[in-house]
Design goal:
The chain has 334 residues and is α+β, with helices and mostly antiparallel strands. The chain folds into 2 domains: 17-42; 88-333, no CATH class. 16% of the residues lie in helices and 29% in strands. The chain is built from 5 helices and 20 strands. The strands form 6 sheets. A 6-stranded antiparallel beta sheet has the order 4-5-6-16-15-17, covered by helices on one side. Strands 7-20-9-18-19 form a 5-stranded antiparallel beta sheet, covered by helices on one side. A 3-stranded antiparallel beta sheet has the order 13-12-14. The protein is globular, with a radius of gyration of 27 Å. It starts with 6 loop residues before the first strand and ends with a strand.
């Protein structure tokens, strides 16, 4: 059977060739891929906290006493009761004296003591906030726009003011990633492990882990107050400085980090950088050495770069790179 082409104005209309079909399919696929990326990666998505009850089956290992078995003496078998500290209550170690004497900025109350100083050395300018809390619930975290989810962010100063924060630093920018353990103010929001994790327990201890050594079930059984997944950890298990890090951003940059002395006693460091003749920032080796010199037992790197911001009483007190940028969360005190 003979096939004929239709004639239009004396010319033959040819059917689309294979190359045109391929090009059309590529264009359609690209459009579909961009739409998927828009909805999955760009547009904000509010999500619900994870049901933590699945982790409650863990039974902590009983503590075995080193004391000898009790004798027949009733007084030895029944020791006099003693005061037991409430987890998260640091009243016994909370300073009675003013910790902000001669500090650049100071905030002293009967529940929170904050003293902030600025240091300029080795071509870097950085701010150190020394913080004591009487109870663990004074160390809070907040999400941008008051919502947990992907691609939700706002300027840290806005988030701080919305939460009436007297002091705040930027956190780990959890909303830019789909992985990382996220616990905020005792609520588990995401249980997808990442390479590094920092945990602040209800008893006030702060510990850092790599993914191989972290057990979420055990951590939840102990009681997590906050967790962050950015990293890397900045000190070894004995509080010593490190020379190797699980990070590719090892050059001198603006930095933000948390340090731990003892339950109820913490510090926050924000380093300005990328600003010639003012501050070029710190590399991770320098930041690690700083926390060792401060006497911290543990320290953990938060999101840095233009995100690194320190806020005190409604003002940004450092000089963020390019004026700072939006972020997904803050750590703060009211």
């Amino acid at each position: 059977m003979e096939h004929r082409h239709k004639q239009t104005n004396g010319k033959t209309r040819k059917r689309p060739g294979a190359i045109n079909v391929i090009i059309r399919d590529i264009v359609l696929f690209a459009i579909a891929l961009n739409l998927f990326a828009l909805f999955h990666h760009v547009l904000p998505r509010k999500m619900q906290p994870v049901d933590a009850s699945r982790y409650t089956s863990f039974t902590p290992t009983p503590i075995v006493s080193d004391l000898p078995a009790s004798s027949s003496d009733p007084s030895a078998a029944t020791p006099a009761p003693s005061a037991t500290p409430i987890p998260g209550d640091f009243s016994a170690t909370f300073p009675a004296a003013d910790t902000g004497a001669n500090a650049l900025y100071s905030y002293q109350t009967d529940t929170v003591n904050i003293a902030i100083n600025r240091v300029q050395e080795n071509s870097a300018t950085y701010f150190i906030a020394d913080v004591y809390v009487k109870n663990i619930d004074a160390l809070k975290a907040a999400f941008a726009n008051g919502k947990y989810g992907r691609n939700i962010y706002d300027f840290p100063l806005t988030t701080a003011n919305e939460n009436h924060a007297v002091f705040a630093v930027t956190g780990d920018y959890y909303s830019a990633r789909s992985q990382g353990i996220v616990v905020r103010n005792g609520t588990l929001y995401r249980d997808v492990p990442n390479t590094d994790v920092c945990v602040l327990y209800n008893d006030g201890e702060l510990k850092t882990y790599d993914s191989a050594s972290f057990n979420l079930t055990e951590a939840i059984a102990r009681g997590i107050w906050q967790s962050w997944s950015f990293g890397p950890p900045l000190l070894d298990e004995n509080g010593g400085k490190l020379s190797e890090f699980n990070s590719t951003l090892t050059d001198r940059h603006p930095r933000s980090a948390i340090g731990y002395y003892a339950p109820g006693h913490y510090c926050f460091v924000v380093v300005d950088g990328r600003q010639k003749n003012y501050s070029i920032g710190m590399n991770l080796t320098e930041l690690s050495a700083l926390f060792e010199s401060l006497g911290c037992k543990q320290a953990y790197n938060f999101d840095g770069g233009a995100t690194a911001v320190m806020i005190f009483q409604g003002n940004v007190i450092n000089q963020p790179y390019k004026g700072g940028r939006e972020s997904g969360d803050i750590v703060y005190f009211t």
